Amino acid sequence: MNQTDPYIELYVRSMLPDGAGSRQDDVIDKLDELERREEIAGYNVVVWGKQIAPESAAASTEAGRYILNRVAEFKQWALSNNVSLESFYQRTSVDSEAADSPYDAMVLPVMGLAQYDGEELAHVAPCTDGENVHTITDRLERLDAGDASALEQRTATGISSD
């Protein structure tokens, strides 16, 4: 293993075993296996919420800034690689009894994966490329096969968006 071996950050809404719990467990088990076999340098699981309002007090906390910076980095990667994250990082307007007026928030995916090669962001999943959906499972399969480079070409038919 060397300094440029892939390092994975897995983002999850919660560590609770609700509807996405078994998928989460499967992904974490696969990351454990890839780390054990030295296909990846390691991984970290980051818990984030369902959404974040960029103009909120929470967004100015260390955790809020971290999430907003990561999402901005992911979007820059998508732009540079001619793919889209828009269906997975949607904007919404939230009505709240606590706030005087509705506010804008970004809905975060239930699960997201970022692959770093050294310090460089190499891949974000899920993402879309026209009709192709590149899922977390797709990315893990490529890492398992020892091919962590290019975006995989697979049609969206029947593929979940992890």
Any overview of this molecule?
β6 and β7 form a beta hairpin. The longest helix is centred in the middle third of the chain and has 19 residues, at 62-80. This protein has helices at 21-36, 62-80, 136-144; strands spanning 6-12, 42-47, 51-52, 90-94, 103-107, 111-117, 120-125, 127-129, 132-134. It is built from three helices and nine strands; from the N terminus they run βαββαββββββα. The strands form three sheets. Strands 2-1-6-7 form a four-stranded mixed β-sheet, with helices on both faces. The protein has a three-stranded antiparallel β-sheet with strand order 3-5-4. It has one domain. The two termini are 28 Å apart. The chain has 162 residues and is an alpha+beta fold. It is globular and about 55 Å long.
Topology summary:
Blueprint lengths: L5 E7 L8 H16 L5 E6 L3 E2 L9 H19 L9 E5 L8 E5 L3 E7 L2 E6 L1 E3 L2 E3 L1 H9 L18
